[in-house]
Amino acid sequence: MTASPHIDQRGCPRCFEPLPVVVLQFGEVHCGNCALDFRAAVFEPPVRAVAVVQAEGSAASASCARHARNAAVAACDLCGAFMCGLCRVESAGKVICAACFDRERTSGEQSATFTSWRTLGWHSALASIFVWPLSFVFGPLAVFAAIRGVIQDRRHGERSWGSAAFSILGGLLGLGFGLLVTFTLLSGRRKH
Amino acid sequence: MTRTLLGKQSTLTRRSRTFLAAGALEIETVEGYTGARRQVLFDEVTLVTLDRRRRVVTLALYGVMAAVFGFFALVSDERPVVVVMSLFALFACVVFSLEALGRNFVTVFGKRGNAQMVFRLSRWRAQKVFDTVCDEIRRAQAAGAVTPRP
User: Fold this and answer.
1) Whole-angstrom Cα distance, residue A68 to residue B95?
2) Mind listing the pLDDT tens digit for each residue in B80-90?
3) For the whole model, what pTM was predicted?
4) Cβ of A120 under 8 Å from any chain B Cβ?
5) 3 state SS of A164
6) CA torsion through residues A29, A34, A36, A38, sign
7) Prediction ipTM score
């Protein structure tokens, strides 16, 4: 994946034209490229150096499983292996070793993509209302997707009851309408 | 993990939501039914901006539409035409007014990516988010110290 050349350069938020830090530090900036006026707050990220402590060599001090000369600073939350400052990875609130991080990444547990159940619930609810022949499919799907969406959002500490309520009600309404129309058509056929 | 929704940005095919999480901004982007999640760490933020934008072409277009429909509503003698033209003129006026108020953008530049949030109507809300994000970044970057090598 190649990053855009503008991504890591400070500049205009509209045209992303790089601007000198001295100009940005004024606070109120005018972009000469696209004529946008904006307010800027400049930050200087700290430079972090990884502290690597050499192992003492005695039996009492634990050394890193991968780097025998480095003293262990933590144990992996998943496999329990000792790790030095170089191997230590913080991921999703856990402190794990590089091997476990790679394993989680390849198995998909670290995947940054997800299915948006909330969106699927919305669209299914609308489809079940406006496309009544398919309401028997989209109605239950809207209800299922709404419930999955609520569970998904709760995992991230969000509340999406309004959206879920619309999806569930819409799905049930569409399903009910589909049943009513189907029943009416079948009744009309029998009479004839 | 609890996070707070800060703002959103939407196009016809893509919707982004930006959350304030522990130590980072989390951006969820949904295209169709697939979402992607990425982070802009506070430790890596280099710039935060706040600006207001107005689309001149949209303003001009809806201004002209409001004038034209309003003119036809005034000069027409037939009631249905007056009603329809008035409704169109009203719609154009509403869109013109919303566009004239502008959209407020808060953009966070990180070393590996950036996050952008759009706020319609509420300049106060955009200002509040700008101040909140800046405070969180200052706190995070002040806590990050240079660790000397032994």
Assistant:
1) 67
2) 999 999 999 99
3) 0.71
4) yes
5) helix
6) negative
7) 0.81
